[in-house]
């Protein structure tokens, strides 16, 4: 009789994986925040990089969009630093701020389409990484 043993994940490997995902989320959220801050500054300065859409339902002044992205970016950077300590509040706040970044970029899609799609994808990865990790694996 031949027995086969399936390899199982040890507890230490799970912690390494969870720690890696948390660091990944922290770095991605930090990058998303820096890009959001820069995008906000560009919009507040009324740069000609943005498209104008005359009949958009969610039309805001470009300066208004700039302040929204600037504030979301600053909060994302702060939460990204909190994620390096693997704090539970930072994980919850990270998912919340990434979701708000997705919504803000979806609404500003007509103004800067390629950048908005990139930011939505980056925030999606942050949400995934923070939701996959179990709280007891991080410690």
List the helices and strands and how they pair.
Blueprint: H1 11-44, H2 62-83, H3 88-107, H4 113-132, H5 135-138
Helix pairs in contact: 1-2, 1-4, 2-3, 3-4
Number of strands: 0
Low-confidence stretches: none
Strand content: under 5%
Assign an overall shape: elongated
Order of helices and strands: HHHHH
Mean pLDDT: 80
Radius of gyration (CA) equals 19 Å
**Helicity level, as a percent range?**
over 70%
> First CA to last CA: what distance?
41 Å
Structure class: mainly alpha
Describe the model.
The protein contains five helices and no strands. The protein is mainly alpha-helical and 139 residues long. Helix 1 packs antiparallel against helix 4 (113-132) and helix 2 runs antiparallel to helix 3. The mean pLDDT is 80.
TL;DR?
The protein is mostly helical. The protein contains 5 helices and no strands.
Q: What attributes does this structure have?
A:
mainly alpha, 5 helices, elongated, 139 residues
């Amino acid at each position: 009789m031949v027995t086969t043993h399936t390899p199982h994940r040890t507890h230490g490997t799970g912690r390494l994986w969870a720690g890696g995902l948390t660091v990944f989320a922290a770095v991605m959220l930090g990058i998303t925040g820096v890009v959001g801050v820069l995008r906000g500054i560009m919009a507040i300065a009324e740069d000609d990089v943005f498209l104008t859409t005359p009949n958009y339902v969610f039309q805001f002044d470009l300066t208004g969009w700039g302040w929204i992205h600037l504030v979301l970016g600053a909060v994302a950077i702060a939460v990204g630093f909190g994620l390096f300590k693997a704090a539970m509040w930072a994980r919850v706040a990270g998912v919340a701020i990434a979701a708000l970044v997705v919504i803000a970029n979806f609404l500003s899609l007509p103004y800067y389409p390629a950048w908005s799609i990139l930011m939505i994808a980056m925030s999606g990865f942050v949400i995934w990484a923070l939701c996959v990790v179990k709280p007891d694996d991080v410690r």
